[in-house]
Amino acid sequence: DGTALGTYMVLDLVPGSGSGAPGGFTHTNNMLFFTAGPGSSLWRIDATTAGTFSIASFQLVSNLTGFNGNVYFSADINYSGQDLWKSNGTVAGTQLLKDLNGVFGASLPCNFHVTPNILYFMANTNEGWELWKTTGSNASTVQVKDINPGNAGGVLSVYSVANAGNIGNT
């Protein structure tokens, strides 16, 4: 709560001298989400010990972003590559939202940007790095436009940080 007395360990993720390596924090729906292990488990906390637990284990999980009561992220569950996932904070509610490449490989969703009603992100498909959007369903997760036709990419040339801003949902 911002005071010395109100600052305490909620849960020791790796009891003993080990480190749980928490990172990648984001919040939504009165829960804090983070990665641990390092970067291989998705956790959630609601400020109680009972409400702090690992939701799912991955080979890699990153780019956590809270949007409309869920957390969206990039994860690789079986060495097949990072794809777009979402979680409502429960084990059952943690699922692959959409495999943007099908069998093509990792789409590496990144650079998530929240607007009031739309979550924008960049992903790498057979059309290169392009701008995508979702409102949270598989059907609403679509490429905005093939900005640079072909596989050259319209947004990025490599997996890197891009800056974005918004006015409303634009």
Describe this structure in words.
This protein is an all-beta fold and 170 residues long. Helix content is 0%, strand content 41%. The chain contains no helices and twelve strands. It has a four-stranded antiparallel sheet, with no helix packed on it. Strands 5-6-7-8 form a four-stranded antiparallel sheet, with no helix packed on it. The protein is globular.
Q: What layout of secondary structure does this protein have?
A:
Elements: E1 23-28, E2 31-36, E3 41-45, E4 53-57, E5 60-67, E6 70-76, E7 83-87, E8 94-98, E9 110-114, E10 119-125, E11 128-134, E12 142-145
Antiparallel strand pairs: 1-2, 2-3, 3-4, 5-6, 6-7, 7-8, 9-10, 10-11, 11-12
Rg to the nearest angstrom?
Answer: 17 Å
Structural class: mainly beta
User: What percentage of residues falls in helices of 4 or more residues?
Assistant: under 10%
CA distance, first residue to last residue = 35 Å
Strand order of the largest sheet: 1-2-3-4
Name the overall outline: globular
Tell me the number of strands: 12
Label this structure with key terms.
mainly beta; four-stranded antiparallel β-sheet; single chain; 0% helix; globular
